Amino acid sequence: MTADYASRAEILKLARVLDVEPERLEYLARVDADDLKAFREQVTDTLFDANIAVLQRMALAARLLPGGVLAKIAEKVFGPLLCARIAGLVDVARGVDVAKRLHPRFLAEVAAELDPRRASAIITRIPLDTVLAVAAELARKEDWITLGRFVGHLPDPTVRRALEQIDDAGLLRIAFVLDDKSRIDHVVGLLPADRLAGLLTTAGRDEDLWTPALDLLTHLSEPRRATLKPLLGGLPSGFRERAQATIR
After folding, report:
1. Are 108 and 134 in contact (CB under 8 A)?
2. Tens of pLDDT, residue by residue, the chain (248 residues)
């Protein structure tokens, strides 16, 4: 079960990188999830390293411009894709300064194209208000994959505040595509005590959320799963049986 869920999640993320519908990659469903992740990262590296010399020269040239001017050029000339490619090459302080000046809607578009591994130092230093505005925009667009990629690169207080803005269905979908599934139990621990019960109740009402919810259960610690057992009785029979089997 766990392997099947992991492969499905990786196919969704690979489809995003390749800009294709996930259905086109269903033939990869039986491939090991770790292999799919390694392939996704190879594809991402290939895309980001293309024309690297040109991008490095652009990043060096960016040092010469005032932050306000550079932010305007980024929005009006570069666009989100080019900004995402350059983000990991610019000086951290300059990257943070420019990010603060960008409109949250544009910054959300940049985030969707960004490889967080390359810009983690910038991401962790972006002001809380900016992060929350971008998270709200991504949630509005239901871009759960981008939100899932950034959770592992933000400090806990920021993650906690960002998750407050996202409903239970959104949280389940984010957890399903989280890059580092070993962090799920930790992230759930950042939620209010009653929120985990709400996640299960929400999943019980919507069959589309059963897979993300069951996947979430497989990554919770034993003590946290135990707290959910009393809640199972009120859930729809199909979901209740699957949840009980997963908890066992």
Report:
1. yes
2. 667 888 999 999 999 999 999 999 999 999 999 999 999 999 999 988 888 888 888 888 888 888 889 899 999 998 999 999 998 888 899 899 999 999 999 999 999 999 998 888 999 999 999 999 999 999 999 999 999 999 888 999 999 999 998 999 999 999 999 988 888 999 999 998 888 888 888 888 888 898 998 899 889 998 888 888 787 777 788 887 887 887 77
Place of tokens 């407050």: 164
Q: What are phi and psi of 39, to 5 degrees?
A: -65, -40
Decide if 212 contacts 173 (C-beta within 8 A).
yes
What 3-state DSSP class applies to 231?
Answer: helix
Length of the chain: 248
Residue with tokens 């490095």: 56
Tell me the whole-structure pTM to 2 decimals: 0.86
Provide the phi-psi class of 247: left if phi over 0, else alpha when psi is between -120 and 50, else beta.
alpha
What does DSSP assign to residue 76?
A: I
